């Protein structure tokens, strides 16, 4: 069995906030690891992004959504520890 994650292991968004509860695997099932915004049909939507770029992306996105800057920074600081980035340095 796959581990069930609470947050997307690419962008850290809570998976329950993902429109379909998660991205789609190549077999069409719902991913328990990545959200709709990051993952579709077994592929990352932003395949060549780095952890650092993802951090910036999420930080800006959160600010756009009205989150205070310190919170956006705090949240995005956890991104490099997620599964997608763990082995990428
Ligand atoms: Zn995501």
Taking the sheet with the most strands, its summary is:
2 strands, antiparallel
Low-pLDDT stretches are: none
Basic shape = globular
Order of helical and strand elements: EEHHH
Number of helices: 3
Distance between the termini: 28 Å
Count of discrete domains? 1
Bound molecules: zinc ion
- Which sequence of strands runs across the widest sheet? 1-2
Query: Radius of gyration, Cα only, in angstroms?
Result: 13 Å
Helix content percent band = 25-40%
Mean pLDDT metric: 94
Number of strands: 2
Strand content: under 5%
Please provide a written account of the structure.
- It is a single chain.
- The chain has one domain.
- 29% of the residues lie in helices and 4% in strands.
- The protein contains three helices and two strands, in the order ββααα.
- It has helices at residues 51-64, 69-76, 83-86, and strands spanning 39-40, 43-44.
- Strands 1-2 form a two-stranded antiparallel ribbon.
- The radius of gyration is 13 Å and the shape is globular.
- The chain starts with 38 loop residues before the first strand and ends with a helix.
- Bound molecules: zinc ion.
- Residues 8, 10-11, 13, 34-35, 37-38 line the site of zinc ion.
- Zinc ion (ZN) binds at residues 8, 10-11, 13, 34-35, 37-38.
């Amino acid at each position: 069995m796959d581990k069930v994650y609470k947050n997307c292991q690419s962008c850290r968004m809570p998976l329950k906030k993902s429109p379909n509860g998660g991205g789609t695997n190549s077999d069409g099932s719902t991913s328990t690891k990545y959200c709709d915004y990051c993952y579709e049909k077994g592929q990352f939507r932003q395949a060549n992004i780095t952890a650092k770029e993802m951090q910036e992306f999420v930080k800006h996105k959160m600010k756009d959504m009205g989150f205070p800057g310190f919170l956006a920074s705090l949240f995005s600081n956890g991104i490099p520890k997620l599964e997608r980035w763990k082995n990428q340095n």
